Prior knowledge:
Layout: H1 3-20, H2 26-37, H3 41-44, H4 50-54, H5 58-63, H6 66-76, E1 103-106, E2 111-114, H7 115-130, H8 134-140, H9 147-162, H10 170-177, H11 184-192, H12 200-214, H13 219-235, H14 242-245, H15 247-250, H16 256-260, H17 263-275
Antiparallel strand pairs: 1-2
Helix pairs in contact: 1-2, 1-6, 2-7, 7-9, 12-13
Amino acid sequence: MDVAAATFISKVERLKLLKRTGKDTSQAIQSIAEDAAILPDFVINDPQCKPHVQKCIPEELKNASPSELTELRDVLAPQMKYKRRLDTFLELDLLDSIAIHGYILLTKSGEKMYVAEYRRLVEERILALVANHPTIKAIQNGEKIDDWQLLELERTLTKELGEGDLEVTPENLKKVFAHTADSFFGLVRQVLDMAYLPDYKDLVARQFESYVTQHNYNADQIRFLHAVQSVFLQKRHLETADLYDAPALVGFGQDAVERWFTENEVKEVIDFANRLAV
Length: 278
C-alpha cells in the first residue's frame, strides 16, 4: 500500500466533506498545502503536476470545487511518496524540527501568507538568484573561491531577498526554516545542499584573524579587535564612534583607542571592517 498517497487522498476527501458540511476547513487546507510545499522540484515542475501544485495554497484550496479537488487528488497523490524528508535537514546542522504551521505577516503589503507557501516562494527565489551567479557556478565547477567572492554572493542575496517583496528577514527565516545562521549563506546551504558554505560570521572571523595576523599587534590590541569584531557583526558596519560607545568596548576604557592605536590605524581598522559589510 502506498501510505503517502492514501494519506493525501484522505486529506483531500476530508476537505471535500468539511466544505460540503460547512465546517472549518483551515486545518485540512493547511495540511494539504504543507504536503505540496515539500514536493521535490521534478514534481513541482512536471507539466501535468505543476498546475495542481500551484493550486495547493490556502486561497485556491478554499475556493476549489469538488471536481477540482478530485482531479488534484488523483494527480498529486501518487507523487506524495517523493516528498522531501524533513529530517534530512539534520545533516545540515539545522534544528531538528522545521516550523511549517502558522502565518508570515508581510509588513509592507499587510499580506498574511501560510508558512509552507512562503517557504516555497523563498526557495524558488533563491534558486532563481543563484542559478547563474558566478560564485555558485565556480563552486559547482570545483573551482577555488575566496572570501570576497562569497561576500559578493551574500550582498546579492541580502539585497534581492531582504529588500524584495517577500521580506526575507532573520525573524521570518527562523520561523520558516528553523534557520539559526546569521546570514543568507546558511539558507543557500540548506536549499542547495551545500554543507560547506560558511556562515557570514565565520567568514568575518576568518578575515579578522587574517587581519590581526598581518599586523604586529600586542595582546591588548588583539583583545580589543576581537571585541570590535563582535560589534561589527551586530551592526554589519562600523563607524569611529562605535569604538568609543559600543557596550562591548566600554570595558576597555574611554581612552583605549588612543592608548593602543594611532589615528591611521583606527582609520585602517574602520576601512577593513566595512569592506566586509553586506
